[in-house]
Queue: 3 jobs
Job 1
Amino acid sequence: MSVLTSARAEAALAALAPARLGRVSEILGLHLLVGGLAAAVGDLVEVESTTGVPVLAEVAASGSAGLVCLPLGPTTGLRAGALVQHTGGPLRIRVGDELRGRVLDGLGRPLDDGPSLDHLPLVSVDHPTPPALSRPRITEQLGLGVRALDSLTPCGRGQRIGIMAGSGVGKSSLLSMIARGTDAEVCVLALVGERGREVREFLENDLGPEGLARSVVVVATSDAPPVERLRAAFVATRIAESFRDEGRDVVLMMDSLTRVAMAQREIGLSAGEPPATRGYPPSVFALLPRLLERAGTAATGSITGLYTVLVEGDDMQDPVGDTARSILDGHVVLSRRLATSGHFPSIDVLESISRVTGAVTTPEQRADATRLRRMLAAHRDVRELVEIGAYVRGADADADAALTLMPQIEDFLRQSMDDSTPTVATWARLHELVAR
């Protein structure tokens, strides 16, 4: 004979309680106006559709006229007067070790033909940021397998770095190199706003079976609703947090942070926010720190965040890029000039910086990196003089050394996508180069 506990009694009463329904009073642009329903911002609701399949929508704003809801799927079949039901809370996703090697959509649902994930625990996408004073300091370098990064822009375990570049300069290819060559146990990749054609190419060619086996990939293509594109960033972050809470070191790669901001811009403007800098509403600049601060070190484990920033017209001072640089712990600049000349990865090492270099490298390593930077800076200053034959050797010792060693320097900075160099080997090769 079973005992009726208070928890079972509450569950039974909740099941017997009548469903509270609202109605769609207006469909305008990207949003639905729902009246007669109580729900909080961020909650999910189900909207009746003439197609027979309810459409999920997220509450974006609340006012005297009702709830402003943004659909998470196609709006075909939605109409004014349709019934709306509250799902009981915000978006929840499955987490667990079995996510590795899987491809998910922006809401955490499987996109591949793998086994069901229904047995994994459900967690809310929202998760508290670790308190500032509980975060261990970054003291250990995380190898990324890319020589130009590991030596001249070293990444610490738990650091957050922005990869700044215009379109078509090699951001996605650089991320795939890191996914295959990093020392981290788990990689979580968020492809936000990518072309649908490129997703399979990235998975099969760039990432490959080896990279995919250790990764969780979250995909929201450019034709996905703006709420799904925005949620894809938080879903990927929440999955990375679940691994970090188990004490693991995770690399979270997001391509791109700019498209996340653009999705929030669409949502904010649809909810009635005023446009501000370059059409971005204020909520965009409040969103970025909420998202980026969730990565980093914690009491157990770490999340090393690598976020690509698609700058408009190669303008490194665009609003999203400028805001990201002020929050992140360093940035890597990709150069279109290097990309068009066949130099890959097209990292402009003189414009790139890591704010934790002093904490994760030895004095000898920093001296070697500084020596190489000085030679590259001197070569940049005299390059035009050399091309017109006006430079006289002996005028600058660093420039003379750079001109002599430039073939070896370029060979060190260039790297094929299939080449992954261990961190120890990178530092040894750099020392050998600058000691000549």
Job 2
Amino acid sequence: MSSFPISRGPLLVLSVLIILVYVLRAFLSVSSGDSLADSVSMLTWNIWFSPTKMQERMKALGKIVSDLHPDILAFQEVTRESLAFLRKERWFSRYHMIPPDVTGQENHFVVILSVFPVVSWLVHPFKIAPYKNRKVVWAVTKSAVSSGAEFIIGTTHLVHAERNTRMRELQLRETLRILSVYENVCVMGDMNIFEGRFKADGVVILPSSWTDAWLSVPENENKNGYTWNARKNPFSKFRSNANATYYSNRCDRVLCKLSDFRVKEIKIVGAELTQSKIVPSDHYGLFTVIELSENVKHKGDETSEEVFFKRPLNWEKSITQEGMVFKVLANWQTDLNLKMNILDTAHSQE
């Protein structure tokens, strides 16, 4: 037995204080968004503005977000109604939303949700666009990784339809011009690209400093990256009866210009039916992880400093065909609405 006994009381108090200090530090670290990690995880998704089964779809989307725990979310076709459902999710309070106020937004819009504090953010409407909601939004995040490397996230929703291929090319060029000033930036979203041998956009050629995250993974190619799949997605199948062009497209993309990171992982999410036999949207989502890396090598397609579409021969014909398809779809939708009205009237008279 020691001749100088030490009271257990002060030791116990000291131990408790030490534990409290570590708990407080952990809490402050989480609440400030400083993950002290070597990677950034991101989820982009066109969540579909349609009111069709919206509550069920947003619940399914929320479940995926809760399971993946992305650091950054980029959503397109967000409506006030869908955003209200998402705000009820427990995970939503973890994120800083950009723009923070959507009261003045159009009928549907894009938002960024970042678990990291946002230093600054900007909204840039496209110079040429048929709709006011076509724009690029980006945010500069703080302390995203342990190295302190600055990371910028952007999201956009380019103009749709093959007939707008030239406008879409200009919008993508405008986007990359704006964001090329940053060293570590990814822009993601529904870019509505109709890429392929017989499609109007042909092959998208990126500037030498930019990389298509999906194609940066060796086993990936266009045909296994379809985020619009009318053969499988129950909410996009209506187009499959019109024209094969609409069967499948890699509409959604993650484009990166990275000096301190590399793409570690990218995968399609949201393709599995829930128990109620739905999916969150007519698009699938893309989950991407980038990690800190030394000696990053840029992997652009060519030496061009501007993005451009290398269109196939006779690409104009696909635009003409698309016009016929839209006419068929419009007539089909009119007939369907008429039939639904007749059924509603019949039910009301029963």
Job 3
Amino acid sequence: MTLLGNRTSASRLCFQLFKLLLLSVFISTPTIAAPPSTVTVTKLQDGLDHPWSLAFLPDNGGILITERSGQLRLWQQGKPLSEPLKGVPTVYAKGQGGLLEVALSPKFAQDRRVYLSFSEEGKDGKAGTAVGYGRLNPQGSTIENFTIFFRQQPKLSTGNHFGGKLAFDEHDHIFITLGENNQSLTAQDLSLHQGKIVRLTLDGKVPKDNHFANQSPARPEIWSYGHRNPQGLALNPWSGVMWANEHGPKGGDEINIPIAGKNYGWPLATHGVNYSGLPIPEAKGTHVDGTEQPAYYWEKSPGISGMAFYNADRFPAWQHSLFIGALAQKELIRLQLDGDKVIAEERLLGDRSERIRDVRIGPDGYVYLLTDESDGKLLKVGLATNH
């Protein structure tokens, strides 16, 4: 009986391991590569100081661009790059910190609001992510009456993992990604903002239907938790659901489809290891009960950054794609989607050897990029042939 019991237990263990292996293969990088694309690249602007984010003004009004060192600039076709806009908050420009995301209000035509995320220094010299908005004046030279409505608490960063991505859903909510400030276990502590995605109204109030709105000591702003350093955030135009991506440590960059109240694992569940090559001390494996698996992940980290869904008509071959920048591998990644599943991956622009920080789809159907360099560039990318 003992021998039979041991054999049965061993068989069950092997079966469970086989299921985990199948699941890992299913959600990790596919072996199928997307058909190669022949792309065109047009340099629109250079000389930017580590640009971080861009936003298109309506009616061909130009592009707002943040520089991490603290400047917000306006690029317009055929004109010199603007001087820094006035009214921008003072930023903590150290390490990965500085002026981060720029995003236009969903009601920009009425309120002319420009939202900015940035790293803000506290009294003890440590910093955290902050978000505010102000009104862009008609001349495009000043952000008026800038008001900070969200501050990451407590401030723990000495220059690492701020997150700072912004995106809006279809119900007048703003989502904000918050890194764990390189202090891993904070991502599991619901009394802290570190390692979280938060959801607020456009004025910075807590929606009554937030999952943790009435669950003190959890922070009521929290939408999801267990994130390391989310560097991409975008609303899926076909499902109306928010997607996010985040940096793993050494390995384990991942894409998530964050659901209210769910735990996305960091640092308990990860496909990565420390930069030294040693295991993450807090990690319990790649699959941990009570945590969600990523929708997609990379065993070798590209160093993923901004991302954008392609839902334009200009290049039909790129329809139903998700574009993501790569900082470490210095490429533009195109993921072909079938619903919520990644079915193919293509790498573009690897010959340029530039860190890609932000990715946006322009109103003209081209893909716009910012390169994170001291001589940063604004690039416009398209297909050589419309097929």
